[in-house]
Protein backbone atom coordinates (compact mmCIF):
# COMPACT_ATOMS: atom_id res chain seq x y z
CA UNK A 1 0.00 0.00 0.00
CA UNK A 2 1.37 3.41 -0.92
CA UNK A 3 1.79 6.31 1.46
CA UNK A 4 -1.13 8.06 -0.21
CA UNK A 5 -3.42 5.13 0.48
CA UNK A 6 -2.32 4.83 4.08
CA UNK A 7 -2.96 8.53 4.57
CA UNK A 8 -6.34 8.75 2.89
CA UNK A 9 -7.62 5.55 4.49
CA UNK A 10 -6.95 7.11 7.87
CA UNK A 11 -8.88 10.18 6.78
CA UNK A 12 -11.80 8.06 5.61
CA UNK A 13 -12.75 7.62 9.25
CA UNK A 14 -13.52 11.34 9.25
CA UNK A 15 -15.80 10.96 6.24
CA UNK A 16 -17.45 7.91 7.77
CA UNK A 17 -18.30 9.68 11.02
CA UNK A 18 -19.48 12.78 9.17
CA UNK A 19 -21.92 10.77 7.10
CA UNK A 20 -23.29 8.57 9.88
CA UNK A 21 -25.20 9.27 13.04
CA UNK A 22 -22.77 7.80 15.54
CA UNK A 23 -19.15 8.39 16.44
CA UNK A 24 -16.45 5.92 15.50
CA UNK A 25 -16.32 4.80 19.15
CA UNK A 26 -20.06 4.13 19.13
CA UNK A 27 -20.15 2.34 15.81
CA UNK A 28 -20.25 -1.44 16.08
CA UNK A 29 -20.42 -4.23 13.57
CA UNK A 30 -23.41 -3.77 11.29
CA UNK A 31 -26.43 -5.98 11.77
CA UNK A 32 -26.18 -8.59 9.00
CA UNK A 33 -29.93 -8.31 8.53
CA UNK A 34 -29.53 -4.68 7.47
CA UNK A 35 -28.26 -3.42 4.14
CA UNK A 36 -26.54 -0.10 4.95
CA UNK A 37 -26.08 0.79 1.30
CA UNK A 38 -29.74 0.99 0.42
CA UNK A 39 -31.55 4.30 0.12
CA UNK A 40 -35.30 4.28 -0.16
CA UNK A 41 -36.26 6.60 -2.99
CA UNK A 42 -39.68 8.13 -2.47
CA UNK A 43 -41.86 10.05 -4.88
CA UNK A 44 -41.87 13.12 -2.63
CA UNK A 45 -38.10 13.04 -2.05
CA UNK A 46 -38.31 12.87 1.74
CA UNK A 47 -39.24 10.35 4.38
CA UNK A 48 -40.61 10.73 7.89
CA UNK A 49 -40.37 14.41 8.64
CA UNK A 50 -37.32 15.37 6.60
CA UNK A 51 -35.71 17.81 6.53
CA UNK A 52 -35.32 18.74 10.19
CA UNK A 53 -32.90 20.54 12.54
CA UNK A 54 -32.70 23.54 10.19
CA UNK A 55 -31.40 21.59 7.21
CA UNK A 56 -32.53 22.91 3.81
CA UNK A 57 -34.81 20.87 1.62
CA UNK A 58 -33.28 19.48 -1.58
CA UNK A 59 -35.41 20.95 -4.35
CA UNK A 60 -33.86 18.87 -7.15
CA UNK A 61 -33.62 15.34 -5.70
CA UNK A 62 -31.30 12.88 -7.40
CA UNK A 63 -32.01 9.16 -7.67
CA UNK A 64 -28.51 7.85 -6.97
CA UNK A 65 -29.28 4.13 -6.90
CA UNK A 66 -27.43 3.39 -10.14
CA UNK A 67 -24.21 4.91 -8.75
CA UNK A 68 -24.07 3.02 -5.45
CA UNK A 69 -22.67 -0.29 -6.82
CA UNK A 70 -19.81 1.58 -8.55
CA UNK A 71 -19.07 4.77 -6.57
CA UNK A 72 -16.00 5.59 -8.68
CA UNK A 73 -18.15 6.03 -11.78
CA UNK A 74 -19.47 9.38 -10.55
CA UNK A 75 -16.32 11.06 -11.94
CA UNK A 76 -14.84 10.15 -15.32
CA UNK A 77 -11.25 10.42 -16.49
CA UNK A 78 -12.32 13.23 -18.81
CA UNK A 79 -13.82 15.16 -15.91
CA UNK A 80 -10.62 14.77 -13.89
CA UNK A 81 -8.64 16.10 -16.82
CA UNK A 82 -10.93 19.15 -16.88
CA UNK A 83 -9.59 20.11 -13.43
CA UNK A 84 -5.96 19.33 -14.22
CA UNK A 85 -5.48 15.67 -13.29
CA UNK A 86 -4.27 13.64 -16.26
CA UNK A 87 -3.89 10.29 -14.51
CA UNK A 88 -5.97 9.25 -11.48
CA UNK A 89 -6.08 5.84 -9.82
CA UNK A 90 -9.57 5.00 -8.54
CA UNK A 91 -10.18 2.51 -5.75
CA UNK A 92 -13.87 1.65 -5.16
CA UNK A 93 -15.31 0.35 -1.91
CA UNK A 94 -19.07 -0.12 -2.48
CA UNK A 95 -19.40 -1.95 0.84
CA UNK A 96 -17.76 0.67 3.08
CA UNK A 97 -19.37 1.02 6.51
CA UNK A 98 -20.39 4.64 5.95
CA UNK A 99 -21.76 3.93 2.47
CA UNK A 100 -20.38 3.32 -1.03
CA UNK A 101 -17.00 5.07 -1.25
CA UNK A 102 -14.33 5.81 -3.85
CA UNK A 103 -10.75 6.90 -3.14
CA UNK A 104 -8.94 8.74 -5.93
CA UNK A 105 -5.15 9.11 -6.09
CA UNK A 106 -3.65 11.53 -8.63
CA UNK A 107 -0.51 10.04 -10.16
CA UNK A 108 1.59 13.08 -9.27
CA UNK A 109 0.89 12.65 -5.54
CA UNK A 110 2.51 10.35 -3.00
CA UNK A 111 0.79 11.48 0.19
CA UNK A 112 -2.45 13.00 -1.07
CA UNK A 113 -5.84 11.78 -2.14
CA UNK A 114 -9.56 12.44 -2.42
CA UNK A 115 -12.47 10.40 -1.12
CA UNK A 116 -16.13 10.56 -2.11
CA UNK A 117 -18.80 8.67 -0.17
CA UNK A 118 -22.56 8.23 -0.17
CA UNK A 119 -24.03 8.51 3.33
CA UNK A 120 -26.30 5.47 3.35
CA UNK A 121 -25.29 3.85 6.65
CA UNK A 122 -27.85 5.29 9.05
CA UNK A 123 -31.05 3.28 9.45
CA UNK A 124 -32.73 5.16 7.87
CA UNK A 125 -30.42 7.75 6.25
CA UNK A 126 -31.41 11.33 7.03
CA UNK A 127 -29.18 13.26 4.65
CA UNK A 128 -28.16 16.77 5.66
CA UNK A 129 -30.67 16.71 8.53
CA UNK A 130 -28.45 14.37 10.52
CA UNK A 131 -25.44 16.62 9.93
CA UNK A 132 -27.39 19.74 10.97
CA UNK A 133 -28.62 17.90 14.05
CA UNK A 134 -25.05 17.14 15.07
CA UNK A 135 -24.09 20.75 14.41
CA UNK A 136 -26.86 21.90 16.77
CA UNK A 137 -25.42 19.54 19.37
CA UNK A 138 -22.05 21.30 19.02
CA UNK A 139 -20.18 18.28 17.68
CA UNK A 140 -18.28 20.04 14.88
CA UNK A 141 -15.31 22.33 15.35
CA UNK A 142 -15.63 23.56 11.78
CA UNK A 143 -19.01 24.52 10.38
CA UNK A 144 -19.79 26.53 7.28
CA UNK A 145 -22.89 26.65 5.13
CA UNK A 146 -21.64 26.75 1.55
CA UNK A 147 -23.02 28.14 -1.68
CA UNK A 148 -25.02 25.46 -3.53
CA UNK A 149 -23.02 22.88 -5.47
CA UNK A 150 -24.58 22.23 -8.89
CA UNK A 151 -27.86 23.45 -7.44
CA UNK A 152 -27.67 21.36 -4.25
CA UNK A 153 -27.26 22.56 -0.65
CA UNK A 154 -23.84 21.96 0.88
CA UNK A 155 -21.97 22.41 4.15
CA UNK A 156 -18.44 22.10 5.44
CA UNK A 157 -18.62 20.12 8.67
CA UNK A 158 -15.55 18.73 10.41
CA UNK A 159 -14.82 17.39 13.87
CA UNK A 160 -11.29 18.80 13.81
CA UNK A 161 -9.87 21.75 11.91
CA UNK A 162 -7.35 20.19 9.56
CA UNK A 163 -6.73 23.30 7.49
CA UNK A 164 -3.05 23.32 8.40
CA UNK A 165 -2.78 19.74 7.13
CA UNK A 166 -4.39 20.39 3.75
CA UNK A 167 -7.54 18.65 4.95
CA UNK A 168 -11.07 19.71 3.98
CA UNK A 169 -14.39 17.89 4.01
CA UNK A 170 -17.84 18.85 2.81
CA UNK A 171 -21.24 17.28 2.32
CA UNK A 172 -23.82 17.83 -0.43
CA UNK A 173 -27.52 17.02 -0.16
CA UNK A 174 -28.55 14.77 -3.04
CA UNK A 175 -32.01 14.17 -1.59
CA UNK A 176 -33.61 15.02 1.73
CA UNK A 177 -32.53 11.54 2.88
CA UNK A 178 -29.18 11.19 1.11
CA UNK A 179 -25.89 13.07 1.31
CA UNK A 180 -22.63 12.81 -0.63
CA UNK A 181 -19.42 13.62 1.23
CA UNK A 182 -16.05 14.62 -0.21
CA UNK A 183 -12.77 14.70 1.69
CA UNK A 184 -9.43 16.05 0.45
CA UNK A 185 -6.16 15.38 2.24
CA UNK A 186 -2.98 16.99 0.92
CA UNK A 187 -0.67 17.90 3.79
CA UNK A 188 2.35 18.40 1.52
CA UNK A 189 0.41 20.43 -1.06
CA UNK A 190 1.17 17.96 -3.81
CA UNK A 191 -2.09 18.46 -5.69
CA UNK A 192 -3.58 21.73 -4.43
CA UNK A 193 -3.00 24.85 -2.34
CA UNK A 194 -6.76 25.03 -1.71
CA UNK A 195 -8.16 21.71 -0.40
CA UNK A 196 -11.63 23.14 0.14
CA UNK A 197 -11.67 24.53 -3.38
CA UNK A 198 -10.65 21.12 -4.73
CA UNK A 199 -13.27 19.35 -2.59
CA UNK A 200 -15.89 21.65 -4.09
CA UNK A 201 -14.67 20.91 -7.64
CA UNK A 202 -14.79 17.16 -6.98
CA UNK A 203 -18.27 17.37 -5.49
CA UNK A 204 -19.45 19.47 -8.43
CA UNK A 205 -18.20 16.90 -10.94
CA UNK A 206 -19.87 14.05 -9.04
CA UNK A 207 -23.21 15.82 -8.69
CA UNK A 208 -23.24 16.86 -12.34
CA UNK A 209 -22.58 13.25 -13.37
CA UNK A 210 -25.46 12.01 -11.22
CA UNK A 211 -27.71 14.67 -12.74
CA UNK A 212 -26.72 13.66 -16.26
CA UNK A 213 -24.87 16.92 -16.84
CA UNK A 214 -21.31 15.56 -16.72
Please outline the helices and strands.
Layout: H1 3-19, H2 77-82, E1 88-93, E2 101-106, E3 112-118, H3 127-136, E4 142-149, E5 152-158, E6 167-175, E7 178-186, H4 195-210
Antiparallel strand pairs: 1-2, 2-3, 3-7, 4-5, 5-6, 6-7
Explain what the structure shows:
The protein has helices at 3-19, 77-82, 127-136, 195-210; strands spanning 88-93, 101-106, 112-118, 142-149, 152-158, 167-175, 178-186. The chain has 214 residues and is of the alpha+beta class. It has one domain.
Q: What is the terminal separation in angstroms?
A: 31 Å
Number of domains: 1
- If strands are numbered along the chain, what order do they take across the biggest sheet? 1-2-3-7-6-5-4
The main pleated sheet reads as:
7 strands, antiparallel
Nearest-angstrom radius of gyration?
16 Å
Broad shape? globular
Low-confidence stretches: 23-38, 40-44
Structural class by sheet pairing and helices: alpha+beta
How many beta-strand segments? 7
Strand content: 15-25%
- Rounded mean pLDDT is 83
The SSE order reads HHEEEHEEEEH
Helix content: 10-25%
Number of helices: 4
Descriptive key words:
214 residues, 24% strand
Q: What does this entry show, briefly?
A:
This protein has helices spanning 3-19, 77-82, 127-136, 195-210; strands at residues 88-93, 101-106, 112-118, 142-149, 152-158, 167-175, 178-186. With 214 residues, the protein is an alpha+beta fold. Strand 6 (167-175) and strand 7 (178-186) form a beta hairpin.
Amino acid sequence: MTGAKRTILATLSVVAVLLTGCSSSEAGDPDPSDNPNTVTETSDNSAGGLPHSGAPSVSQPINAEEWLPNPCSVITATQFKSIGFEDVDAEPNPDATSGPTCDWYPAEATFAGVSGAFGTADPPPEGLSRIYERHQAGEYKVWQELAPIAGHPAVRAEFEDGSDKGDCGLAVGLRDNLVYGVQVLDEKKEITDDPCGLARKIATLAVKTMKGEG
